[in-house]
Amino acid sequence: MEPHPKPRLVLPGIVRWALLTTALFLVVLGAATLGAPVPLADLWAHNTARAEVARQIFLELRPPRLLAGALVGAALAASGAAMQAVFRNPLAEPYLLGVSAGGALGATIGLALQEKAAGLAGGVRGAAGGFDLATMLAFGGALGASALVYVLGQRRTGSTINRSGGFERGALLLTGVALSAFLSSLMALVVALGSRDDLARQVMFWTLGGLAPATPAHNTVLAAALATGLLMLMASARDLNALRVGDEEALGLGVAVGALHRRLLLAAALMSAAAVAAAGLIGFVGLLAPHLMRTLFGSDARALVPASALGGATQLVGCDAMARSVAQPREIPVGIVTALLGVPLFLFLSRKS
Amino acid sequence: MEVGSSLTPHPSSLGMLSLESLTAGYGGAPALCEFSLQVASGQIAAVIGPNGCGKSTLLRCVAGLVAPSGGRVRLDEDDVALLPPRERARRVALLPQHFVGGDELSVEAMALLGRTPYLAPYGAPSPHDCAVAARALQATDAAGLSGRRVAQLSGGERQRVMLARALAQQPRVLLLDEPTSNLDIRYQYEILDAIRRLARSENLAVVLVLHQINLAAAVADVMALLNSSGTTRACGTPEQVMTQENLEAVYQTPLIVAAHPQSGRPQARSAWVFQ
Lengths: 353, 275
Prior knowledge:
Chain A is an all-alpha fold.
């Protein structure tokens, strides 16, 4: 007996995984070599000077940003998969519950204070182990906003699902929308009152997202958040699968639905907050990658979660390579590319299904 | 309330599922009031009553989806409300009236979801789990539907698959909320026949909520009739419960009750004559 739901595009599982990993490999390879001043083959050149240049470019300068793209993409997509499972809606995405607005407010405050703080402390970057103030405040703001939405969005009713810490989706969504609007206004207020002339421009570019500031320190934190979140999701795969038939039936199947909701929302918030802090507000990766992977791999969480992570990594590394190279020598914010490519693809997919 | 709740055909296994003065509701006035019933293994109990009398609440209570505000549900010696969800799901399976999701699943995957309470957190089913799910599909005559998606099934086919999922939980108690709604008359009897066979062969205690009182009277070993207020009007054998007096009092309409010519079971017809 075939134990898994048959996905729409019927290919043997091994072929699907091979295609996905090949796609990621090719995109990373392409992104690494695209626009490089020397060919990749120089790594193996006999001329030591040329080999040294290639080594610096391909093994030192470019990997942090490639890795950041892969980690942020994977974190957003896995977070999106978790949100879509909780809300049982393919349109759910990581920014639904205030992560984006909270992160943006934190980043804005950080950017507003940054120069002052840098002047005072002689460079916060050095003082905080490679993180600037905006990054740290964005991470805190994103996590804080999700926690606030979760607390304010609780509704107590008589059913066991809610008593065990579950929630009503409508109440949570409304709280998320309202709090996001509130935090966005606060962000605008900070910009309006800020003393720096270029603050508005900096904030705008931050909200459009970008992987340029990626550092190994960022990547370490990102990797830790991604690993934690993925582990939490994979350790909930059985319950995620039961959740596909609804909260109440899942409860009837023995799933502690309230605890599951909390675990999934926590994993989603952790991963998306780390992504937002590292790269700003990159849209459509968290929505599109899990959606696309569901059509390829079906809805079994054991396949969908890791496939979404790989798909999100592929998508963002590819989009970032384009963002770097289409308007050279200028770089456009990667959030613009993910949206410009993602929206038409998403519309196409949603028309098909 | 009439006596007779202790009348069961298998006194030896009496009291396997025991509902004791169960009261439940969603805030405000209780939907279900002081309901008591005992169902033995292999027996089918049918609960009937007008709309909004708390029939579904009763099942949700027994399944642990709603905590009772009074009384308790005992399964053997355990209080169902105190069982951990996984343990409860291994003993009690509920077939809900409405299904909200899972249309995209294959028939096999849906049946396999019944193994959820037996799986490790990562959720990989063992060959044994797959075999149990496959047997459950055979038991409900749904094995031929393999490979299809739930969304492609007719109402009767879907009901058989959902019944298979409940059986794959290998429960001791099977709760069915309107399993015949939206089915053609042939499938109504087929699904009830399957349930009756399974109750006997798997030694299940079955509690069935039915809107159609004649179907309930045809299949049940024990019946309970609820007033619209959620209190119990009658409880006992179909003959004890399905009296003209009881039914007219509860449903507020003139009725004629007569034994079915073949089965001898009481069946009610409306005494309404259009002018």
